[in-house]
Specification:
19 helices; 19 strands; single chain; alpha+beta; 6-stranded mixed β-sheet
């Protein structure tokens, strides 16, 4: 009997060993099921389903076309920028009333879409018309009108920027200083989205393969910052040298720094300069002196990266990342050109605007956005975007110290020709950035208006200033004038 019981125990033990993998697998599948069920509940409670459908990569949105006529895109004051025309046979055509004026910003509704047409596709293909209209349309087998995307864009300012830039290549971006609302985003050369089939065919042909007509220079164009970078160099100097008011440099028009020849514009000898005079007259030799003899280069790099060089920008649309390569390990011969905004440093007009916006706001960066909200086809508000702070990226005391210097650029310095003597105040910086070895330059202006209580921030880049003689300061002055003329009417 004892031997029998012992045998049975051994059998049970063997069976347990055999069943152990099955038990483990059972537990594993139960845990997976519980996890999936829990995630499904979380997904539904958090309403992430809508976010998933709204993702621009989700092809499910295309199925909405069977039931909804694509909604309008309008400016903040109701000017229609994109709409859908329907003929008597029910054929739908996307139409852009102002053609090339808003092309890069509004985008196009084909070939994968772009601009607002892409980013707001989900809302444009939803319909929240009143229930009576919806029932009537459903009974009549008619499509419902899609919702309207209300942008922050200002038609008059956009037209002014385009007119001022004229035939020159370049970009203009204008933000509300305190909110980050984008009022202007213009890029030239531009294209007519009503003719996107031919535009697309041309840029994908052998002859048009080098065309940049579809590039939004405001957010994707990378340029040497030129003298606009001197703002960062001087802010770094002020941080490292609390006695910056004692700074003095004698400019003879050109000099040698770290074996590199640096000259001022037209080899102009500026004489003795303090820090304000250095910025106002955009003195290359003074700034090169500061960079080569007075700065910790790793600290300068840290400041540049705090100002979002080599980083993502808080912007939801497509953009290029700006770059800053100089470090304490770089060859010292790279310092003189880099600190005056040349060398390998690159920035977009959008990024340059954000740096100036942070200065205007005492160091606080506001997230830029281009959509104010969503309305239904009857004009009833459905949602509204709110301004969001991205936190402080510059020390407040540094902005208080640099702003009077930026004002002097306008009153007594390189921006005085077009912006001096205006009925409004402006703080800003000009810039000419060489893009080849033949002395050809692009022209920059970055700045903000109403210095004591900033209204708008502007960033302008004009390509090939050497040839077309259209300066960034000239373009900015036209936009500022239009803004205050419209405000005072």
């Amino acid at each position: 009997m004892k031997a029998f019981l012992e045998k049975e125990r051994e059998k049970v033990k063997k069976n347990q060993l055999k069943n152990k993998p099955l038990v483990l697998m059972t537990y594993m599948f139960v845990l997976i099921f519980i996890g999936m069920f829990g995630y499904l509940i979380y997904f539904m409670v958090k309403d992430d389903t809508e976010q998933v459908v709204a993702n621009t990569s989700n092809k499910r949105q295309d199925s909405f076309e069977k039931f909804v006529i694509r909604g309008d895109i309008i400016t903040s004051d109701g000017v229609v920028l994109a709409t859908t025309n329907v003929d008597e046979e029910g054929n739908e055509t996307r139409y852009y009333p102002y053609g090339s004026l808003f092309a890069h910003t509004v985008g196009y509704d084909s070939y994968g879409r772009s601009g607002i047409e892409l980013s707001e596709n989900f809302d444009l293909m939803r319909s929240h018309v009143n229930i009576v209209s919806k029932v009537g349309n459903d009974l009549g087998s008619d499509k419902n009108p899609g919702d309207t995307v209300v942008t922050s864009l200002d038609y008059n300012l956009q037209q002014t920027a385009a007119d001022a830039l004229g035939g020159a290549k370049g970009a203009v971006i204008v933000l509300e200083a305190s909110t980050g609302r984008i009022l202007v985003m213009y890029s030239n050369p531009t294209f007519d989205p009503n003719d996107i089939d031919n535009v697309w065919a041309d840029v994908h042909s052998e002859e048009g393969s080098t065309s940049t007509v579809l590039l939004n220079r405001a957010t994707q164009g990378l340029y040497a910052p030129g003298s606009t970078f001197k703002i960062i160099t001087l802010m770094e100097y002020m941080k490292e040298h609390p006695d910056y008011e004692n700074y003095r440099h004698t400019c003879y028009g050109s000099d040698i720094f770290n074996s590199v020849s640096i000259r001022c514009s037209n080899s102009t000898a500026h004489g003795e300069l303090d820090l304000s005079g250095t910025l106002a007259h955009s003195c290359n030799t003074s700034v090169a002196n500061i960079g080569c003899n007075e700065l910790d280069i790793d600290s300068l790099r840290s400041t540049a990266e705090k100002l979002l060089y080599n980083s993502e920008l808080p912007y939801d649309g497509e953009y290029s990342r700006s770059q800053f390569k100089l470090s304490g390990e770089s060859n010292i011969s790279e310092i003189p050109q880099t600190v005056i905004g040349q060398g390998d440093t690159l920035i977009t007009p959008l990024h340059n605007a954000l740096i100036m916006q942070a200065i205007a706001n005492g160091g606080v960066l506001m997230k830029p956005y281009i959509v104010d909200g969503i309305e239904n086809a009857d004009g009833v508000p459905l949602s509204k975007n709110k301004s969001k702070s991205c936190g402080s990226i510059i020390e407040p005391e540094v902005t208080r110290e640099i702003i009077p210097m930026l004002q002097q650029v306008v009153t007594d310095g390189t921006a005085s020709q077009y912006l001096g003597g205006k009925p409004y105040t402006v703080a800003g910086k000009t810039g000419t950035a060489e893009y080849d070895n033949n002395g050809n330059c692009n022209s920059w202006f970055v700045g903000f208006s109403d210095v004591d209580d900033p209204d708008i921030v502007i960033s302008v880049i004009v390509e090939d200033y050497t040839t077309n003689q259209t300066s960034g300061t000239y373009v900015a002055s036209k936009v500022f004038d239009a803004y205050y003329n419209n405000t005072n009417q």
